[in-house]
Amino acid sequence: MSGMRRPVAVIIGMMGAGKTRVGKEVAQMMHLPFADADNEIERDAGMKIPEYFAKYGEPEFRKLESDVVLDMLEDFDGIFSLGGGAPMTPSIRQGLAEYIADGGKVVYLMADPKEAMERANRGGGRPMLDGDANERWKKLYKERDPVFRQVANVHVRTYGQTPQVAARKLMEMIDQRIVHITGATIEPYDVRIGEGVMSQLAQVLGDKPSKVALIHTQPVQRHSDRARTLLRQAGYDVHDIVIPDAEAGKTVEVANGIWQRLGEEGFTRSDAIVGLGGGAATDLAGFVAATWMRGIRYVNCPTSLLAMVDASTGGKTGVNTPQGKNLVGSFYTPAGVLADMGTLASLPNDIFIEGLGEVAKSGFIMDPEILRILETHAGELRSFDGATFLDSGLKDVLAELIEHTVGVKAYHVSADLKEAGLREFLNYGHTLGHAIEKLEHFRWRHGNAVAVGCVYAAELSHLLGYIDQDLVDYHRSLLGSLGLPTSWNNGSWDDVLALMHRDKKARGNKLRFVILESLGHPIHLENPPADAVEEAFRRIQR
Ligand SMILES: NC(=O)c1ccc[n+]([C@@H]2O[C@H](COP(=O)([O-])OP(=O)(O)OC[C@H]3O[C@@H](n4cnc5c(N)ncnc54)[C@H](O)[C@@H]3O)[C@@H](O)[C@H]2O)c1
Ligand SMILES: O=C(O)C(=O)C[C@@H](O)[C@H](O)[C@H](O)COP(=O)(O)O
């Protein structure tokens, strides 16, 4: 389907939900064309729908509807609204599933049933409501609502809202970017990126959990307040759990404190966890979710750039131990990730820049578009200011960067959830990076340590004849232009080497690294010569 024209969004919903009214409004706001499937069908058939129904019956109508909808899915690039019953036809459901798989957005417009029923009855002309219209509408709602929920990848509740307010909400949802994570051993889930996506928290959590533990740190209180309000409005019993900030929260003692609370408050297997904050908070929340009753549902709401592009996705959860970084944990997939870019408005500049370390890493190992964006916008990124970026051109640049970086993560995680080989490439720069973090008592930020670690890995690749000096220099100049460190000189080689032996890629007493064969092409390096490993270290000390 790629390369064809395709709708920016497809709207589905019950008769009377306002699909046409709201759809037209959104199209106007976004300067896009609008099409209504029923109008297209009438044009094709050369008659009104009630007439077509009367003449040929519902099965023939559904066939024609399916042909028209499937054509439009491949040849229309605006906002496309479907008739109420269209998603009940299997061929249309299939078409919508393919459209979603190709990055499309099927929006279920969820209006208040009472309002929608009244609107649907006004004016008549709806063959599906012949007879007792209210009873027919309710029966159809019962059949269709569960299907609509399943078919759509975006749910928008418009209860009591004017078409303009509903349209603005819908536009926000359409503007979001969605990266779909799937794989043979993964329950599929989406990473949603954009301003306001946190409002989909209840949709992603689903209706099974009744209790939700909202795990967060204090500096993101303003965002956890919003999450708590959203969760309470959706009817969950919310338990607020504040953990120590940053790496101090990633300990087994903190996890133990939460296990005790979950026990006291009666959390069962059908309840859930929301992890909200930087990567340390989402790593800890995921670990608690993975271990409580051997695994309960969890959703991540990352609020730092690093957590959005990396930590919140992929299911690596865990805690540090006195011996090193992330030494205890599990691979446990979240039910969804909501990367609400609105939360970045409170992110300090230095923590934003740190996140660029993991972004650049993803560029070095796989995606040249990431490197292009970083090079082009280095100055703006370096002077990131949370207070102003949402109203600046940087917002779209950043959305693009986050989507690409999550795409790199998704590619590796989908193929190799438990890190048997390919996923290790995401660890580029981490062998030394984790050692630096540990030796700096976690006062060095993770992304900064990874940036130095990437330069180290590049030096090692060069020393072993894989890459030329230019590519090593490129690492230094790109990372430096973003405000990231490229050298470290605060620890002994013996300490570094001992910590690198505890890295999870090591096997027995043999070190293993990820290095580059060329830009975008990482390889595994097994048991490299000791002198090269040490010489590369000497080179990052300068
Ligand atoms: N699981 C994974 O795959 C994975 C991947 C990469 C990194 N990580 C882990 O993630 C952690 C690093 O994540 P991080 O860089 O987000 O650090 P962090 O979690 O320590 O957060 C950094 C600081 O920023 C604050 N903060 C976060 N969002 C904020 C916001 N919107 N406004 C104001 N303050 C905010 C935090 O409270 C904290 O003080 C490390 O522990 C690292 O090991 C895990
Ligand atoms: O997702 C992965 O796999 C990664 O390696 C991503 C890394 O960026 C991340 O820092 C991760 O937490 C490192 O994991 P570890 O297994 O080396 O502790």
Describe the structure.
The strands form four sheets. Strands 6-7-14-11-10-8-9 form a seven-stranded mixed beta sheet, sandwiched between helices. It has helices spanning 19-29, 37-45, 49-56, 58-74, 90-101, 113-121, 133-151, 163-175, 201-205, 221-233, 252-264, 279-291, 305-311, 349-365, 368-376, 378-382, 386-389, 394-415, 430-439, 446-463, 469-481, 493-500, 530-540; strands at 9-12, 34-36, 79-81, 106-110, 154-157, 177-181, 189-194, 211-217, 237-243, 272-277, 297-302, 316-321, 324-331, 336-340, 512-518, 521-526. A hairpin with a 7-residue loop joins strand 6 (177-181) and strand 7 (189-194). The protein has 542 residues and is α/β, with parallel strands linked by helices. It is elongated, with a radius of gyration of 26 Å. The protein folds into three domains: 7-174, Rossmann fold, CATH 3.40.50; 177-347, Rossmann fold, CATH 3.40.50.1970; 416-540, Dehydroquinate synthase-like - alpha domain (Dehydroquinate synthase-like, alpha domain). The model has no long low-confidence stretch (mean pLDDT 95). Helix 2 (37-45) packs across helix 4, helix 6 packs across helix 7 and helix 20 runs antiparallel to helix 21. It is built from 23 helices and 16 strands. Bound molecules: nicotinamide-adenine-dinucleotide and the ligand O=C(O)C(=O)C[C@@H](O)[C@H](O)[C@H](O)COP(=O)(O)O. The site of the ligand O=C(O)C(=O)C[C@@H](O)[C@H](O)[C@H](O)COP(=O)(O)O has 12 residues, from strand 13. Nicotinamide-adenine-dinucleotide binds at residues 217, 219-220, 245-247, 250, 277-281, 283, 303-304, 306-307, 310-311, 314, 316, 326, 343-344, 346-347, 351, 354, 358, 445-447.
